[in-house]
Design goal:
The complex is a heterodimer of chains A (107) and B (122). With 107 residues, chain A is an all-beta fold. Chain A has no helices and ten strands. In chain A, β7 and β8 (70-75) form a beta hairpin. Chain A is globular, with a radius of gyration of 13 Å. Chain B is mostly beta strands and 122 residues long. Chain B is 0% helix and 50% strand. Chain B has no helices and eleven strands. In chain B, strands 2, 4, 5, 6, 9, 10 and 11 form a seven-stranded mixed beta sheet that branches. In chain B, β4 and β5 (45-51) form a beta hairpin. Chain B is globular, with a radius of gyration of 13 Å. The N and C termini of chain B lie far apart (40 Å). The chains are: A mainly beta (107), B mainly beta (122). Chain A binds chain B through residues 1, 32, 34, 36, 38, 43-46, 49-50, 55, 85, 87, 89, 91-101, and chain B through 35, 37, 44-47, 50, 59-62, 95, 100, 106-115.
């Protein structure tokens, strides 16, 4: 099975900072990669699919890139409401594995 | 508006069975693959199982294969997860999630239900 590895597992940044989260697949998955945001106590929400397509309603400060095995989620200007855990997920084949998550906090 | 409402969770002893349901509304249910994802307390997301729109294709995580069965009733717009031989490590919030787009099973998940808590403990 393909493994999904996220880094870092947690980060602390200041409001307005640029934040980058990395997700690596153990084998190539083309662009079958999604990113989700889960705020504390809330349900996960789809941010990005097909590695780089922003889901409707998601602020433009979020962006995704990558293909094959290496992917990134970028928040160009971190806002207080972005405090959450972010997960990548591959959906190229079953199992539809999630990464371990990255907790983002405000410094 | 798409709505997914899970039910059926609760506190059960190890070894027993439980059946979760997810009532769907606001979309053409039979056109979309559906999935179950769980989250143990304080832990990350774990995909559990998925089923195609027709119900003809199913997939399972190795951790539940042979114990859990996913199914759907398209006439009732309901997704199910039959969980047998429950273990302490199955304790989690169980979410149902709709495929983002119709057609292919291999899709991102959007939206997710609110989840139902399953606690396996003696």
């Amino acid at each position: 099975d393909i493994q999904m590895t996220q880094s870092p597992s947690s980060l602390s940044a200041s409001v307005g900072d640029r934040v980058t989260i990395t997700c690596r697949a153990s084998q190539g998955i083309s662009n079958y990669l999604a990113w989700y945001q889960q705020k504390p106590g809330k349900v996960p929400k789809l941010l990005i699919y097909a590695a780089s397509i922003l889901q409707s309603g998601v602020p433009s400060r979020f962006s995704g890139s990558g293909s094959g095995t290496d992917f990134t989620l970028t928040i160009t200007s971190l806002q207080p409401e972005d405090v959450a855990t972010y997960y990548c997920q591959k959906y190229s084949s079953a199992p539809l594995t999630f990464g371990g998550g990255t907790r983002v906090e405000i410094k | 508006e798409v709505q997914l409402v899970e039910s059926g969770g609760g506190l059960v002893q190890p070894g027993v069975s439980l059946r979760l349901s997810c009532a769907a509304s606001g979309f053409t249910f039979s056109s979309y693959a559906m999935n179950w994802v769980r989250q143990a307390p304080g832990k990350g997301l774990e995909w559990v199982s998925g089923i195609s729109g027709s119900g003809g294709s199913t997939h399972y995580a190795d951790s539940v294969k042979g114990r859990f069965t996913i199914s759907r009733d398209n006439s009732e717009h309901t997704l199910f997860l039959q969980m047998n031989s429950l273990r302490a490590e199955d304790t989690a919030v169980y979410y149902c999630a709709k495929a983002r787009a119709s057609g292919s099973y291999y899709n991102a998940f959007d939206p997710w239900g609110q989840g139902t808590l399953v606690t396996v403990s003696s």
